[in-house]
């Protein structure tokens, strides 16, 4: 298990995901992992700079913007950043541990 992970969350506006980001940080503390997590609106993806992408271990889309996954796959794939959609259940339950475990499983691949 890594000692630290950098996760970027992208949702419709970045607001609803902020609470989830805090829960992910708490789950990281509970698991002894330093978690750098930020929530942004999905529109920011097209404005990411190479250094922004290089700093990420994982990118996760909120389920409400999951339909747009195909629009962003190339950006993340070209940068070597694994990207997926947060499962609706984990998002709706604001289950930071489940989302952190998803992110950690993506880094291992």
How would you describe the overall organization of this protein?
- With 109 residues, the chain is α/β, with parallel strands linked by helices.
- The protein has one domain (4-108): Rossmann fold (3-Layer(aba) Sandwich).
- The protein is 46% helix and 21% strand.
- The protein has helices spanning 16-31, 50-54, 69-79, 88-92, 96-108, and strands at 4-11, 34-41, 58-61, 83-85.
- A four-stranded parallel sheet has the order 2-1-3-4, sandwiched between helices.
- Strand 3, helix 3 (69-79) and strand 4 (83-85) form a beta-alpha-beta unit.
- The longest helix has 16 residues, at 16-31.
- It is globular.
- The chain starts with a strand and ends with a helix.
Secondary-structure blueprint:
Elements: E1 4-11, H1 16-31, E2 34-41, H2 50-54, E3 58-61, H3 69-79, E4 83-85, H4 88-92, H5 96-108
Parallel strand pairs: 1-2, 1-3, 3-4
List keywords for this structure.
alpha/beta, Rossmann fold, 46% helix, globular
Task: Report the sheet-strand fraction.
Answer: 15-25%
Task: Please name the CATH topology.
Answer: Rossmann fold
CATH superfamily membership: Response regulator
Taking the sheet with the most strands, its summary is: 4 strands, parallel
The CATH architecture name reads 3-Layer(aba) Sandwich
CATH class: Alpha Beta
Q: Distance between the terminal alpha carbons, to the nearest Å?
A: 12 Å
């Amino acid at each position: 298990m890594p000692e630290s992970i950098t996760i970027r969350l992208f949702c419709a506006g970045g607001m609803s995901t902020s609470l989830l980001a805090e829960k992910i940080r708490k789950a990281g503390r509970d698991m002894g992992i330093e978690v750098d997590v930020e929530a942004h609106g999905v529109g920011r993806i097209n404005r990411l700079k190479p250094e922004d992408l290089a700093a990420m271990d994982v990118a996760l889309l909120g389920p409400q913007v999951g339909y747009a996954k195909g629009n962003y796959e190339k950006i993340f794939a070209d940068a070597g950043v694994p990207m997926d959609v947060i499962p609706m259940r984990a998002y709706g339950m604001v289950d930071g541990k489940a989302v952190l475990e998803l992110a950690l499983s993506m880094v291992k691949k």
